[in-house]
Amino acid sequence: MRRRRIILILTFITVSFTFYRIAKKYNFNTDYEVGQRIDSLNGVIVYFNGGVDNTVGRNTSTDNYNIGLKYQCVEFVKRYYYQYLKHKMPDSYGHAKDFFDKTLSDGEINNKRALMQFTNGSAEKPTINDLIVFGGSLLNKYGHVVAISV
Predict the structure, then answer these.
(1) Residue 53: phi, psi to the nearest 5?
(2) Among 20, 30, 79, 98, which one is most buried in terms of CB atoms within 10 A?
(3) How far does CA 35 lie from the centroid of its chain?
(4) Cα–Cα distances in Å, from 60 out to 69, 136, 139?
(5) What are the domain boundaries of the chain?
(6) Positive or negative: CA dihedral 19, 21, 26, 28
(7) Global pTM?
(8) Are 122 and 76 in contact (CB under 8 A)?
(9) Topology of domain 2-147, CATH
(10) Between the CA atoms of 8, 14, 16 and 20, what dihedral angle is there, to the nearest 10 degrees?
């Protein structure tokens, strides 16, 4: 009886995990197709990504700068910085959570991004074109990064 219960629990966990992994890649919003233009910020197009973990290849610039995995948040932020602000990040790889270096103090330069970095609670408040970085979580281990637009 105990063995059967353990097998049942393990089966439930396996099925749940598999469903969760598939669901994060699935496009539940059928009004849009992956790669469809849905908005823009200062002339830089925002494309629909589909499922949370969906990717459709790597985007690089004409000078081979790695912009990121289409059409994730990192790809948009780096494309926005590259096209609109003419800024290339020295370390062009990493997940959203990697945009914040936990070893730096408030107001220090993040050399991997060539940007000043501020912590929560800083006297310096975010302004237009600044980035806000969210760390990873149980449901999204990669984190999230956004550009301030207003």
Answers:
(1) -100, 10
(2) 79
(3) 16
(4) 9, 25, 28
(5) 2-147
(6) positive
(7) 0.84
(8) no
(9) endopeptidase fold (from Nostoc punctiforme) (3.90.1720)
(10) 180
* Nearest CA-CA partner of 38 in 48, 30, 28, 29: 48
- CA atoms of 118 and 47, how far apart (whole Å): 28
Two tokens, residue 77: 């932020």
- Over its length of 150 residues, how does the chain's per-residue pLDDT go in tens digits? 788 887 777 777 777 666 666 666 666 778 899 999 999 999 999 999 988 788 889 999 999 999 999 999 999 999 999 999 999 999 999 999 999 999 999 999 999 999 999 999 999 999 999 999 999 998 889 999 999 998
Do 82 and 61 contact (CB within 8 A), yes or no?
A: yes
